[in-house]
Amino acid sequence: MLLPSISPPSAAPTVTTFATTDLCDANEPRLADGSLRVLAPNFHRYGQHPRFAGRAKTLKVFEDNTLVRTALESPGHGQVLVIDGAGSLRCALLGGNLGKLAEKNGWAGVVLNAPIRDADEIDACAIGVRALGTCPVKSKKAGAGTFDEPLAFGGVTVKPGDWCYADRDGVLFSDVELA
């Protein structure tokens, strides 16, 4: 299966050079017009990188992580995989093995509208992860889902190629790269 891709992403910003609070303060007009959006604060932090940023690669699935693996097996080029799992809490869409794949293949992070599992293993990976919590149940493996479509969850809309900025204070999605 060929993995659809957006145009080659530019390099992710240096992850130590931003704070989401400062980005919000400096971009109030973007917050007002919706070109900068703040993810709801109910997403938990995992992985070694509490701060990460990169272009969004979007994926929509439901209780099936086959395409999550497909994405993370490909070179990440500093992107953030944003997964809408429809908020289902019945199974995890990311586990320790996929966390290691994300790290190995250069993904900056993963944002999931779903739980993870193997939290200790993911915490050992040099990536950033935001998820709805943990669930020990593994997902289905049917291969259903779609890449590169707009997603709507957590009070935001995320389009393929948007910029994602995450730190301990929150997760932002922007139509443009922020300085």
Structural overview:
- With 179 residues, this protein is α/β, with parallel strands linked by helices.
- It has one domain (43-174): Ribonuclease E inhibitor RraA/RraA-like (Glucose Oxidase, domain 1), CATH 3.50.30.
- It has five helices and eleven strands; from the N terminus they run ααβββαβαβαββββββ.
- Strands 1, 2, 3, 4, 5, 6, 7, 10 and 11 form a nine-stranded mixed sheet that branches. The protein has a two-stranded antiparallel sheet with strand order 8-9.
Largest sheet: 9 strands, mixed
Query: Could you please say which CATH topology applies here?
Result: Glucose Oxidase, domain 1
β content, as a range? 25-35%
The CATH class assignment is Alpha Beta
Structural class: alpha/beta
Helix content range: 10-25%
DSSP strand count = 11
Shape: globular
List the helices and strands in order. Answer: HHEEEHEHEHEEEEEE
CA(first)-CA(last) distance: 36 Å
Number of domains: 1
**Which radius of gyration do the C-alpha atoms yield?**
15 Å
Task: Please report the number of helical segments.
Answer: 5
Spell out the CATH superfamily: Ribonuclease E inhibitor RraA/RraA-like
CATH architecture: 3-Layer(bba) Sandwich
Low-confidence stretches: 1-14
Mean pLDDT, to the nearest integer, reads 93
